[in-house]
């Protein structure tokens, strides 16, 4: 009956959520072609599992429902026909998205890579650039601030200054960036530049 089918799907959906907990999860195929008789959804998905699409993008590109995509992915995971993407695959996938003018997808992949422990200044800078492309200045400023702090902590004041100045270019009244630029200027003995940034804080 319809009620029993609905109940079955609810139970199955809970199982799917345990294995595929987020729409930002990214998977890569471990085979180029599935065995004969495989589920049609899985057959279509296998060509898309190259590290350039998260689950949300798979739903968009395959034109299947979230439930169908998640169900197919769970079956493929159980059959070891796909696996979770590694950091290098995520960054490569993000580059593909950038080249194909899909900054939103690129941002999600780069955020996923950072969440998995990738600590590469170039990666964070790339994410900030992608955020700027999408008009997300505040988000870009967050990533640039983290990058600037890392550079400053490493004693790379020139690079840190350039990074904080990028924040100010995006958000002219960004208090933290002006404060950090002023501090670097003071340490460098450039009182005129330091005053300029302190004045910006009270204007």
Mean pLDDT comes to 90
Number of distinct beta strands: 3
Topology pattern, helix = H, strand = E: HEHEHHEHHHHHHH
* Stretches with pLDDT under 50, minimum 5 residues: none
Outline type: elongated
Report what the structure shows.
With 203 residues, this protein is mostly helical. The protein has helices at residues 2-19, 40-45, 55-62, 66-78, 87-99, 103-115, 121-133, 137-153, 157-170, 175-187, 191-202, and strands at residues 26-29, 50-54, 82-84. Strands 2-1-3 form a three-stranded antiparallel β-sheet, sandwiched between helices. Helix 5 packs antiparallel against helix 6, helix 6 (103-115) runs antiparallel to helix 7 (121-133) and helix 10 runs antiparallel to helix 11. The chain is elongated, with a radius of gyration of 23 Å.
Question: How do the strands and helices of this protein lay out in sequence?
Answer:
Layout: H1 2-19, E1 26-29, H2 40-45, E2 50-54, H3 55-62, H4 66-78, E3 82-84, H5 87-99, H6 103-115, H7 121-133, H8 137-153, H9 157-170, H10 175-187, H11 191-202
Antiparallel strand pairs: 1-2, 1-3
Helix pairs in contact: 1-4, 5-6, 6-7, 7-8, 8-9, 9-10, 10-11
Short description:
The chain is mainly alpha-helical. It has eleven helices and three strands; from the N terminus they run αβαβααβααααααα.
Provide the descriptors you would attach to this structure in a database record.
three-stranded antiparallel sheet, mainly alpha, 3 strands, 203 residues, single chain
